[in-house]
Structure formats: C-alpha cells, structure tokens
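Hey L., structure's done. Input below.
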Amino acid sequence: MLDTTPLTAAVDQFADRLRAAPQSRLQRGAATEALALARELAAWAQRIEVPDEEPREMPDAGMFAAADQITVAGRDLALVLEDSGQLAEALTLVEKAQKRAGV
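Output:
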C-alpha cells in the first residue's frame, strides 16, 4: 500500500496557512488558487475511481471554504493514488499552488 502521508501533510499545511491568512490575501487570489487546486485534485481522484465518467466540478463554496475544499479533495485523492509517480505529481501540484497563493 502506498504511503500518502506526505500528500495529506502538504494539503493540511496549505489549508492551515489559508485559514490563518487575512481576508485581503484570500481576496487577492489565494482562495482562487486553492479552489483551482481542489478542483484539479478532485477531478483526478474521480478519473481514477470512475474512469468511464466525466468528473464533476467541485463547486465554489466561497473563499472561506477553500481550505476545507483542498483538504477534502487532497485526502480523497490520497486514498486512490496508485503509485509513487502519481504521489510525486500530486505533491508538486500542491507545492506550486501554495507558492502561487502566497501563503
């Protein structure tokens, strides 16, 4: 079984930083970056779980929910990843999104 602890830790760290960020930072794009990441991770997990169906898009629940959305999507993906290459790719996505978010 693949140890996805690094992914859940990275997602949790990003979410914690979003929760601690001032509203102005969220408005300047951090929440948008987080939602984009959550949508990407959720779609990826859906493609693994149900490859014959089109992934559903995660809704925009508002800037204050973005941290929770990346947590849920990241943990869902962690449950279905199949190999270390996918894990490394997911970690890279989280790291890049967090840098773009500036948190």
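The chain is about 75% helix and 0% strand. Residues 23-49 form the longest helix (27 residues).

-- N.
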